[in-house]
């Protein structure tokens, strides 16, 4: 499948792995893919992201991702469902962080005792890559570009899609932005 990726999509995947390494994560996650997309310039996804979530709104997007990481990757919908069962995710996060330190529930830190040094992709990140292929095929595109990665991130649900949607980046808005007559 990787041979069908454009140079921009390949660079995005490589930059996602670099983000994971810098974060000290043992796996590449959808969040790392989004961070890599946000770093890109002069690509179709970068142009759409620039219009839908301009640089001045990015700190808010990054804060939303950070908050979700603190909640062990639970989306707001997950936290609300647990609240309906009488489980206060915020209180759990506070108690765990009191004992183990800030970010203890993130679950993405390398453990030197077992980590092999080779980054892999999380199940969710692999699903994003697979979905990007399906999106490209559905759009009758011959190659998988970084725009297909962005579309896949918006459609798969979860924390990244939730944070993007809160900032006006949805499948529909990205699709419209890609189809707009203005040059990218």
From TrEMBL:
Keyword Phosphoprotein found: no
Keyword terms: Repeat
Highest taxon of source: Bacteria
Domain Clp R intervals: 2-184
Ranges in a coiled coil: none
Annotated protein name in UniProt: Peptidase
Taxonomic source organism: Streptomyces vietnamensis
């Amino acid at each position: 499948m990787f041979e069908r990726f454009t140079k921009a999509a390949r660079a995005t995947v490589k930059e996602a792995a670099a983000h994971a390494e810098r974060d000290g994560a043992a796996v590449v996650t959808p969040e790392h893919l989004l961070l890599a997309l946000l770093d890109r310039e002069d690509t179709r996804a970068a142009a759409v992201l620039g219009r839908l979530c301009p640089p001045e709104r990015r700190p808010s997007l990054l804060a939303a991702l950070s908050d979700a990481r603190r909640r062990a990757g639970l989306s707001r919908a997950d936290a609300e469902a647990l609240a309906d069962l009488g489980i206060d995710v915020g209180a759990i996060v506070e108690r765990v962080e009191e004992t183990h330190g800030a970010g203890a529930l993130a679950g993405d830190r390398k453990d030197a005792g077992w980590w092999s040094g080779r980054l892999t992709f999380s199940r969710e990140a692999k699903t994003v890559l697979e979905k990007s292929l399906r999106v490209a095929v559905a759009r009758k595109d011959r190659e998988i570009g970084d725009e297909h990665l962005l579309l896949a991130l918006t459609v798969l649900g979860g924390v990244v899609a939730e944070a993007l949607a809160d900032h006006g980046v949805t499948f529909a808005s990205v699709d419209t932005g890609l189809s707009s007559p203005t040059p990218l």
